């Protein structure tokens, strides 16, 4: 232990308003919490106003549309969205002041974005809205897909539908048991239980014929792993053979750090664009592309600035919401929605204000952690719990360590060529795969660079037990972490299957490490064991 | 049947990765080019004094150290190879060329590199990682040419002064085709009601062609071919004939286990089998040899990670065509446990071969070393053989 790196403990000089022990609001008997958290008058009012916004401004508006009610009754996964308000509360445990506002503004928009995606799916869905004219202008794509290849299509004319996001990715966040059925379907059909459950569940949804059916065409991508590549084949078979929706396989090179794959990646992007043009009849427009590229750069600048703040003793925007926000903005949006620009700036302003005021999420920051690996969907509140319970502040997670460079944003003949390289680069370096593929340097070496840069003494290592790319470097992380004096806190999970590791089994791994290795007591004992294994 | 004259010789060669022929070839000044994936164009690893050696880990027992480095959730071949590398079993290698094909094998080789398991006494030793094509398009051919140039040819030339000219590539292809011709001819004897070679014997010969310097086994392969032409087949009838599809089979006892249950493995379509690995490369004189070799490998590739739908469907058609050609009664789709590409391919392939092509299919996962799960595997195969027999009876045929 003496060789291990230590960081200076940072103390919160402010007393937290309202509830002192938020662990008390969890209940063993209920599937939701006993009551809402009391955060002092001002923050409780803010929190409640956002709850009202979600209930009435987003979800109420959605359900008033009869088409959406029909969709709700047709699709099993829609059940998850009954629990969105409860799901939102998972992210705000113990939060006050700027942190509460940042979390609400960011996550509320992510929810609104997913709601809009469901609305769009139902509109074109052959079984629900069956708006044929709309559907013929839609291109569907994968949940984990980066979408630069649609940046130059006017989103009012050509609609990009990430139909796996509401079906599987987001629904699992709001209802931990939701995906189990689709995993069972996939396994009943012969896919083993040892592959990554995310593409497996998506394949299961397809086998269960529980995806919305719409679109003039589909673009699939070999996103993050062998499993996601292989699952696409199953999904494409149903799309093509049963529903007559042509699919394009956008092959994205894995060794994205090598210059000699760029030309191929560019060709693939060009192929995807031509394919969409052919099937939707819409044309690529360079002014639309460069406007989106400008917004991508705004997002990149804001994200870089957020990370700068997070390298100081007073990090402001972190945890699952930072990751989900980046996921939505960087991957799913890619500069197409103008509101993200407004929101990016708003969130940065709040973070700067919080930094200036030295706002903290907990009463002490004892350790500074880099979170590496892939977070489990069903314990999405884990990082907030970790900082509140143990004072381990998650400075940044792997999924948020993405492109830091600007792309060409001015429309010139040279930049039009450069644009394809930029799109190819963004596509290759999409979230997660930019670290899990491309060789050990981007997975292992970059982690230590980040620890140095952000002054971290702990790596909280999510070990998603079916993620072969991460697990394949297990020993290297151990050995090299030891050499550098960095604590490696392994936390096993199975991404979206709570039967393998329950929420408490996941948290207990941190509890054990903190007690036995760090020899510490929790900052908030009410949170050490919380009875939410059966909660949504 | 009378034992093949050289069978024990070939069996012995498979007993260790660093077999006696590798030492002999190196003694003669050969350069051992180690590789791990069938997608790497093999003739390019056999230029001039180079000889290709596909890494395998026979007699695998404990994989504890590799499991520490890669956890027990990675496929057993990747862990077995790493374990063997740590033990020093691949110290003969003068370089390792690996495609970023399946993630686990890629990670395995990265661990080998980081742990400096090879090349300690060889200043010219190098590791190279390649991008491998995903589809069958001209862009993929270009990618493959560039990758082979940058990650095979140039490093071999720079580190070992290997001649990488068009002429040298053509010569290597010629050598490759000679081998293919012999192996394919040997494989032809698996056809018919009275096959003259068993699936097990063929597997031993075929595997040897990947893990030994080909020049040093050619003579014995040719002698075996001649021997087969006059070999008297067994009088006994096989209960059924099957086609084996899936992940690499490095453990010939797995084939033996299947055949011990009366199911002859009449055809092999798995990584490092004879289909499609031992297919003739036809070169013309108009185009450079490298481009033609790369195109051949992509067009003939049956790897599950090829992602365009034409390839996805044609892989099943390929299996169905082989099943028809070899007149098999059933198909076994198998994967080594934790192999993601074959996990999905096995599911889709077995489903399509049953429903679209009408073949009985056994779909199983298995350990790298079949003996560690022999009882379970035997039970599955026995049941499959019986089900095929029952179907035959129900159709009015005889056993």
Structure description:
The complex is a heterodimer of chains A (536) and B (399). Chain A is an alpha/beta fold and 536 residues long. Chain A has one domain. Helices cover 50% and strands 9% of the residues of chain A. Chain A has helices spanning 41-63, 66-74, 84-90, 97-124, 132-135, 164-174, 180-188, 197-207, 226-242, 262-280, 286-310, 320-333, 339-356, 382-390, 413-428, 433-436, 440-453, 468-471, 474-484, 503-517, and strands spanning 10-11, 138-141, 159-161, 217-221, 247-250, 364-365, 367-372, 392-397, 458-464, 487-493. Chain A has a 4-stranded parallel sheet with strand order 3-2-4-5, sandwiched between helices. Chain A has a 4-stranded parallel sheet with strand order 8-7-9-10. Chain A starts with 9 loop residues before the first strand and ends in a 19-residue tail after the last helix. Chain B has a domain at 9-168: Rossmann fold (3-Layer(aba) Sandwich), CATH 3.40.50. The relative contact order of chain B is 0.13. Chain B has 14 helices and 8 strands. With 399 residues, chain B is α/β, with parallel strands linked by helices. The interface between A and B is large, with 52 and 52 residues.
Largest interface: A-B, 52 and 52 residues
Classify the helix fraction of chain A into a percent range: 40-55%
Strand fraction of chain A: 5-15%
Number of separate strands of chain A: 10
Q: Determine the oligomeric state from the structure.
A: heterodimer
- By CATH, the architecture of the domain at 9-168 in chain B is named 3-Layer(aba) Sandwich
CATH class membership of the domain at 9-168 in chain B: Alpha Beta
Number of domains of chain A: 1
Classify the beta-strand content of chain B into a percent band: 5-15%
- Overall pLDDT of chain B: 96
Low-confidence stretches of chain B: none
Name the helix and strand elements of chain A from N-terminus to C-terminus, one letter apiece. EHHHHHEEHHHEHEHHHHEEHEHHHEHHEH
The side-by-side strand order for the widest beta sheet of chain B comes to 2-1-3-4
Tell me about the largest β-sheet of chain B. 4 strands, parallel
């Amino acid at each position: 232990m003496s060789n291990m790196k230590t960081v200076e403990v940072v103390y919160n000089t402010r007393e937290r308003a309202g509830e002192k022990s938020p662990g008390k609001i969890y209940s063993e008997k209920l599937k939701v919490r006993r009551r809402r958290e009391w955060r002092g008058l001002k923050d409780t009012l803010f929190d409640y106003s956002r709850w009202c916004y979600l209930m009435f401004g987003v979800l109420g508006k959605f359900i008033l549309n009869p088409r959406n009610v029909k969709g709700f009754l047709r699709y099993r996964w829609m059940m998850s969205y009954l629990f969105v308000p409860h799901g939102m509360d998972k992210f705000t445990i113990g939060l006050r002041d700027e942190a509460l506002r940042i979390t609400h503004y960011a996550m509320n928009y992510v929810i609104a974005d997913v709601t809009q995606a469901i609305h769009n799916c139902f509109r074109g869905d052959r079984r629900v809205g069956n708006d044929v004219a709309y559907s013929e202008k839609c291109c569907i794509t994968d949940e984990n897909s980066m979408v630069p290849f649609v940046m130059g299509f006017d989103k009012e004319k050509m609609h990009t539908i990430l139909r796996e996001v509401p079906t599987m990715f987001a629904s699992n966040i709001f209802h931990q048991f939701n995906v189990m059925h689709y995993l069972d379907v996939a396994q009943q059909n012969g896919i083993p239980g040892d592959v990554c459950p995310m593409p497996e569940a998506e394949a299961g949804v397809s086998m269960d014929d529980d995806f919305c059916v719409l679109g003039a065409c589909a673009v699939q991508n070999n996103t993050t792993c062998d499993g996601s590549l292989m699952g696409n084949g199953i999904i494409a078979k149903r799309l093509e053979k049963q529903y007559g929706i042509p699919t394009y396989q956008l092959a994205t090179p894995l060794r994205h750090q090598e210059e000699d794959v760029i030309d191929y990646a560019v060709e693939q992007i060009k192929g995807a664009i031509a394919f969409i043009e052919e099937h939707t009849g819409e044309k690529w427009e360079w002014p639309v592309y460069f406007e989106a590229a400008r917004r991508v750069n705004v997002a990149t600048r804001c994200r870089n600035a957020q990370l700068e703040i997070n390298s100081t003793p007073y990090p402001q925007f972190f945890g699952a919401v930072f990751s989900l926000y980046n996921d939505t903005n960087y991957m799913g949006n890619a500069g197409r929605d103008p509101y993200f620009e407004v929101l990016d700036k708003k969130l940065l302003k709040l973070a700067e204000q919080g930094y200036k005021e030295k706002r903290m999420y907990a009463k002490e920051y004892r350790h500074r952690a880099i979170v590496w690996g892939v977070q489990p969907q069903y314990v999405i509140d884990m990082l907030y719990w970790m900082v509140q319970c143990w004072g381990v502040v998650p400075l940044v997670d792997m999924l948020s360590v993405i492109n830091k460079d600007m792309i060409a944003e001015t429309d010139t003949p040279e930049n039009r060529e450069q644009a394809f390289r930029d799109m190819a680069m963004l596509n290759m370096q999409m979230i997660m795969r930019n670290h899990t593929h491309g060789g050990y340097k981007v997975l292992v070496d970059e982690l230590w660079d980040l620890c140095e840069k952000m002054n971290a003494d702990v790596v909280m290592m999510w070990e998603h037990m079916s993620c072969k790319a991460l697990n394949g470097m297990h020993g290297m992380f151990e050995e090299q972490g030891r050499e550098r004096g960095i604590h490696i806190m392994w936390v096993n999970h199975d991404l979206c299957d709570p039967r393998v590791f329950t929420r408490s089994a996941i948290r207990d791994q941190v509890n054990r490490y903190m007690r036995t290795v760090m020899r510490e007591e929790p900052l908030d004992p009410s949170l050490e064991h919380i009875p939410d294994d059966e909660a949504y | 049947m009378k034992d093949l004259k050289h069978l024990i010789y070939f069996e012995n060669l498979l007993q260790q990765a660093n077999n006696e022929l590798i030492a002999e070839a190196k003694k003669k000044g050969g350069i051992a080019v180690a590789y791990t994936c069938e997608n790497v164009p093999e003739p390019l690893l056999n230029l001039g004094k180079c000889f290709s050696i596909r890494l395998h880990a026979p007699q695998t027992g404990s994989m504890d150290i590799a499991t520490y480095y890669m956890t027990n959730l990675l496929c057993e071949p990747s862990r077995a190879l790493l374990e063997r590398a740590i033990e020093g079993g691949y110290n003969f290698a003068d370089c390792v060329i690996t495609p970023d094909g399946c993630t686990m094998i890629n990670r395995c080789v990265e661990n080998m590199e980081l742990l400096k398991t090879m090349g300690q006494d060889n200043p010219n030793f190098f590791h190279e990682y390649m991008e491998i094509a995903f589809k069958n398009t001209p862009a993929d051919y270009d990618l493959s040419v560039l990758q082979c140039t940058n990650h095979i040819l140039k490093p071999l030339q720079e580190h070992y002064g290997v001649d990488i000219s068009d002429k040298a590539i053509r010569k290597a292809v010629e050598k490759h085709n000679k081998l293919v011709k012999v192996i394919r001819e040997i494989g032809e004897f698996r056809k018919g009601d009275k096959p003259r070679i068993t699936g097990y014997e063929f597997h031993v010969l075929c595997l040897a062609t990947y893990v030994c310097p080909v020049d040093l086994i050619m003579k014995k392969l040719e002698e075996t071919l001649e021997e087969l032409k006059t070999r008297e087949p067994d009088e006994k009838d096989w209960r059924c004939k099957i086609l084996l599809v899936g992940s690499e089979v490095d453990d010939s006892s797995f084939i033996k286990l299947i055949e011990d249950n009366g199911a002859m493995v009449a055809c092999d379509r798995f990584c490092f089998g004879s289909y499609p690995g031992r297919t003739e490369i036809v070169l013309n004189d108009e185009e450079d040899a490298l481009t033609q070799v790369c195109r051949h490998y992509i067009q003939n590739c049956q790897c599950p990670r090829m992602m365009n739908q034409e390839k996805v469907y044609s892989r099943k058609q390929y299996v169905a065509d082989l099943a028809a050609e070899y007149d098999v009664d059933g198909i076994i789709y198998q994967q080594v446990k934790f192999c993601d590409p074959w996990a999905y391919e096995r599911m889709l392939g077995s489903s399509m071969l049953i429903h679209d092509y009408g073949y009985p299919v056994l779909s199983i996962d298995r350990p790298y070393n079949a003996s560690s799960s022999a009882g379970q595997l035997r039970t599955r195969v026995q049941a499959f053989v019986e089900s095929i027999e029952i179907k035959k009876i129900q159709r009015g045929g005889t056993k």
